[in-house]
């Protein structure tokens, strides 16, 4: 994305920083609501943020698989990463 406002840059940066801080083997659950709120607000503000929403969703999906493969959760859907991915899916439009 180009031409982000300072507020948009701050919001996207805070989401990326939190995702990277928690990492695949951490518990993102306490931040799901705030991440979904920020991403939803950005998408509502500008449809170009669907791509950003998709990138964060995809990262959450990858890390939910990593947590499951390392036996941190019994079921893929049990991790906070899986819940985050599921909640972000509402902002990602299908190109099919």
Describe the protein's topology.
Blueprint: H1 6-22, H2 32-45, H3 50-69, H4 80-88
Helix pairs in contact: 1-2, 2-4, 3-4
How would you sum up this structure, described in words?
- The two termini are about 20 Å apart.
- The chain has helices spanning about 5-20, 30-45, 50-70, 80-90.
- The chain is built from 4 helices and no strands.
- With about 100 residues, the chain is an all-alpha fold.
- Helix 1 runs antiparallel to helix 2 (about 30-45), helix 2 packs parallel to helix 4 (about 80-90) and helix 3 packs antiparallel against helix 4 (about 80-90).
- It is elongated, with a radius of gyration of 13 Å.
- Helices cover about 60% and strands about 0% of the residues.
- The longest helix has 20 residues, at about 50-70.
């Amino acid at each position: 994305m180009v031409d982000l406002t300072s507020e948009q840059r701050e919001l996207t940066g805070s989401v990326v920083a939190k995702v990277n801080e928690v990492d695949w083997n951490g518990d993102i659950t306490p931040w799901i609501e705030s991440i979904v709120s920020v991403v939803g607000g950005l998408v509502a503000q500008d449809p170009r943020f669907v791509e950003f929403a998709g990138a964060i969703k995809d990262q959450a999906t990858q890390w939910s698989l990593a947590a499951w493969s390392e036996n941190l959760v019994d079921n893929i859907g049990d991790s906070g990463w899986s819940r985050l991915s599921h909640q972000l899916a509402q902002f990602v439009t299908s190109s099919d």
